[in-house]
Amino acid sequence: MLPSLRALPHRLVVRLQRGVPHRVDVAVTVFFSALLIWLFAAVNLFYYPQVHEPAQADAIVVLAGAAAERLPVGRELAAEGYAPELVLSSTDTRGNLITDLYCDYTAGDTVSEDPASAAVTCFFPEPMTTRGEARTIARLAADNGWDNLIVVTSRYHLLRSETNISQCTTANLTMVPSDPELSPGQWLGRFTEETGGLAAAVLRPTCASRI
């Protein structure tokens, strides 16, 4: 009895050496294969999203967040005469500080002293998410008769925001990216966040019907 008990740990080690490594190898291979496939898809969807050249529109909408990179793009498009309205999402949050200050001082004014320049309009999305912005933008488009919109947001955010907004409005959307300066680790974090947000937009549409 005692010799057989002493031999038990040895038999367990031998069994583990024979059986577990193969299964672990398969699991590790599957995991890293799935990870590489996701990373490839994320790079193409969020780092190299499909973009179009801006065209004449009824309004230029700048989404909240990363204001230091997004607002200048929207202002430049407005100054170049792409639309008579510059519409800014204001949230009173740290990441949107520049846009919020711009709204405090310029809402109702124009981008420049030129009377033909775009008028500035600001809105507070409820809730303060991309989904909340999409619903508010749809209502603004319907109330103002806007059929064509230029939407400015960070490159990684283009696909998710376009998906959300297009679920709420019949207006034609032209998505224009701003380019963030992110480290590889930050890009990986954005890929993860955008994957979850895009999945939620597909599985749970922002609006039951378009306005």
Short structural summary:
The protein has 211 residues and is of the alpha/beta class.
Task: Characterize the structure shown.
This protein is an alpha/beta fold and 211 residues long. Helix content is 54%, strand content 13%. It has 6 helices and 5 strands; from the N terminus they run αβαβαβαβαβα. A 5-stranded parallel sheet has the order 3-2-1-4-5, with helices on both faces. It is elongated and about 65 Å long. Residues 1-5 have low confidence and may be disordered.
Globular, elongated, flat, extended or rod-shaped: what is the shape? elongated
In order across it, which strands form the biggest sheet?
3-2-1-4-5
User: In percent terms, what proportion of residues is strand?
Assistant: 5-15%
Give helix and strand order, one letter per element, not per position.
Answer: HEHEHEHEHEH
First-residue to last-residue Cα separation: 80 Å
Sheet/helix structural class:
alpha/beta
Number of helices: 6
Helix content: 40-55%
- Main β-sheet, in a few words? 5 strands, parallel
What is the mean pLDDT? 88
Q: Radius of gyration, rounded?
A: 25 Å
List low-pLDDT spans. Answer: 1-5
Number of strands: 5
Please give a handful of descriptors for the protein shown:
211 residues; disordered N terminus; 6 helices; alpha/beta; elongated; 54% helix
Topology:
Layout: H1 2-47, E1 59-62, H2 67-79, E2 85-89, H3 97-106, E3 119-123, H4 130-144, E4 148-154, H5 158-166, E5 172-178, H6 184-203
Parallel strand pairs: 1-2, 1-4, 2-3, 4-5
